[in-house]
Amino acid sequence: MKVTAAVVNGEKRDFELEEIELDAPKDNEVLIKLVATGVCHTDVAGQDGLTTPMPVVLGHEGAGIVEQVGAAVSSVKPGDKVILSFSYCGKCRNCLAGHPGMCDKFNELNLFGPNFDGSHRLHSAHGDLNLYFGQSRGSPVLPPTLSPTNTTLLRCPTTLT
Length: 161
Description:
The protein is mainly beta. Helix content is 11%, strand content 31%. It is globular, with a radius of gyration of 15 Å. The model has no long low-confidence stretch (mean pLDDT 84).
């Protein structure tokens, strides 16, 4: 599907809004329509080339509405409002102890560029685009009375899982 993304095509280059191709969700993935987003200092570090290979789609703060879920997803359903979070494996000792921010695979899943399975889910006319912070994990489901536009900045400085 065609989407618009803020792409950085090289170190210290400006964000460029580009129409790119987003692959359909895999069995364990969720498609979220963003309704609000923010820019974190780590996005700026990424823009400067300090965290993730180029070219990259930066941005990891956001909130939105689940549009599609993969066949193996049971934690959310279409229509749920969610806050985006970082990726974590869910299987290491830290994740199992309730500390996903200390995941043994945190850097691999969030900063190295490809998706958890080695694939690239985002593509430009020039080739594959790298991910940043897993682009991102939807968690948790927001109460129906809470608007996603009022929760965007909660995700980065706090861990709600």
